[in-house]
Amino acid sequence: MINITTVTEGTTYIAKFEGRLDVNAAAKADDALSEIAGKADKLVLDFENVEYLSSTGLRVIKRVRLKMKDKNGSQITIRNLKPEIKDILEMTGVAAMLVFE
């Protein structure tokens, strides 16, 4: 289960995640982030309360990153990562596509 709350600061959207970004949450996360990507000039993913990230969750991040890049060339920023989540991003090569705070 994943909960996503969104805060806007001008054209910057901050999506705060809570729970597991896995196969059960992927559709909800993809829908929410795709909608945000259509409006945002900058997207920040706050993963402070993400407990688990699966390969399906990685695909969601990669897909939304491509939408942001195609739209206006911007990157996705991720903040407040737990070390084990950052390790997953680094081991899979996804970290190279992102900006970290």
From TrEMBL:
PROSITE patterns: STAS (PS50801). Residues 2-101 form the STAS domain. SUPFAM superfamilies: SpoIIaa-like. InterPro entries: Anti-sigma_ant, STAS_dom, STAS_dom_sf. It comes from the Bacteria. Belongs to the anti-sigma-factor antagonist family. PANTHER family: ANTI-SIGMA FACTOR ANTAGONIST TM_1081-RELATED-RELATED. This is Anti-sigma factor antagonist. It comes from Butyrivibrio proteoclasticus.
